[in-house]
């Protein structure tokens, strides 16, 4: 149990998701403006995202667990580490925080606060990519918590750094971030109409990872006791 | 209390700020000379800055606290962790060190020791960006000290790595560094006339972070005792 | 001895090798599509590969040892830390996992599941490079285990990050990954006909490292007792 | 005192310096061949160098101290942590290892084993840069050993990552590496005639750092006892 009360935990989830989305959207705008080479822009989007994840999870993990992601909150609810009401409140805080992050990024770059994204992100390859991206994220978190909890901020930051590149979708892997990215018509945007399939695949990937890691991380000894 | 006397602590603040500014200005010159792509230049400015922050804070933190930043010293003064006289001396050492860093960078690259910058950095988006940048920096430092002091050098290095990209101002977030960057007419410069607004916004961001984190990081138990 | 039974250990080897190859092949496709500058593409291939190695070895090391590489499994068999049967099963899991990684990367990027690579990688310089690359990898692993086991994920990730650039072959250094890269006709591919020489040189490098580090890492005291 | 005998320590110094130079020269060749943008090439030279330093110092530090640098060995000799004869043997091993690293890099890239470099690196700015670069390197090492020995591999790797960019000379900061770079006519080369001034400035920087840090790192308490 966290020593922090629910208002602080929700504030931590909202603040962390806002700073995460602010980084994704803001660095995307900056990188896109500065270069004509899309790979350089993606480097300029990747490095800040990976870096801020290490910072945010270290800062806010002891307060709220630093989910910043409804798919992660779902996993912890399934593992009975958070109540249904707590999980629902977390998700609301994450979505609102994420939207706030987009608004702040837009204001810094002197754009309209909210825009409908026109970036098409759809099709089987993208959907598979979102499933794989979220599968790997949840697997890394669960194994990290099990074996080396202090390393989790690094595992998540480095995992997302890699996943921006190895997935065809640049790895949203987070329904709250996906929603927040649907209201920016910049480098990191996604059409609102493309959201539902992304979110469904993210949840599917999270569920598969929960099941697989539940089996994989149970050592022989504990297994014997369980039989 | 540091085991180091005031002259050593001031020397550490001056040396650290000089090496920080030398890195920001020097790598900016190098990156700008080598590439026509502004995003590549910013990558060549970001990676060295993030890296040297980890080094400098690890090296000099045990001597002086490794503030290198008047906004950070202000926060520690507000928290009664440094005296008013000590804080004032720190700020003088930081500003002088920072100016020294610019001079040394210029001499290495065979430029005039001091130049008036002509780079315009002004407007509401930039000011908001400086406030956000310094807010996040102070929040990361306060949470890091509270939960995982050994990680603070990494948190600051990674935070600034991200903030170079997610803010519209490339995140000065430091009045001493801003002053030192006003006397270089190179990649990282800022017009002297644009300084006051930047510094005001940095201080505002630091104050807001101090207030918010003062509430957020107080766990329920300590809270109960305080009532 | 791992607390995990053989099926879990084999699953960890297959999953880890699949995610490693998926990252190498997937990020290669992404980086190649986004840029016309081959160095930028290699940066976009290097950063994800180094990052995912830190993640995968931290995640799965406690389960299977996180070899993900037949040359590494060979070294541990020579050191009698794994049985012949166990080593053979590991290698099968690694090769199958690696092939699975290529297939998944192709499906994400909407390519045919398997392709014969046409990328020529042959000649004395490349073969020397593969020997050196694997020599360094095994040396880093053996010294890391000896002096600072917790750092091994970082040592491997950083070593491969460097070796992508300092070797003429971009450092395959792994027979299972090499096989998996022979069935993709994308940035990271290698002609099937070029495989045998690569694999032979990788094994030679691993054997030389095992012998040299066996001598180098034996301190004077243990040496005296042994005489 | 190291638990390792002199032959092993010299082998570690030679092997480590060879792998360091092999990385500097090899990644320079690779990065230069792949890109027309000099900043991208420098990124492709910087990341591998920083990464391999973390690996090599972690691997070989417990054996030999992982100097890989005559300027560093000089500092430890001045501090009476190595004998004059030991220091001389270290320097010979470093220089021979460094030359071996250049030869191996050339063979991997199918170049003549040794070449006279034609790259001009001279003038006051460059000399100041070498002095500053080595000053900072030695300061980081001495403070790191004093406050957080386990972090020294990271401090050196990150410091050099920054110094490649903030110095006008791209920070050789190492006489053995400078000598090894005088026999390659590739990206990282230096004309043999430019060596003596570089080496003199590196030694001067190391001596100034030793003196300054000797004062700065002595806390008030120890100071009081010394008076």
UniProtKB/TrEMBL annotation, chains A, B, C, D:
Gene3D superfamilies: Glycerol uptake facilitator protein. Signal peptide: none annotated. It comes from the Bacteria. Belongs to the MIP/aquaporin (TC 1.A.8) family. GO terms for cellular component: membrane. It is a multi-pass membrane protein. It is found in: Membrane. The chain crosses the membrane at residues 12-31, 51-78, 85-107, 127-145, 152-177, 197-217. GO terms for molecular function: channel activity. This is Aquaporin family protein. SUPFAM superfamilies: Aquaporin-like.
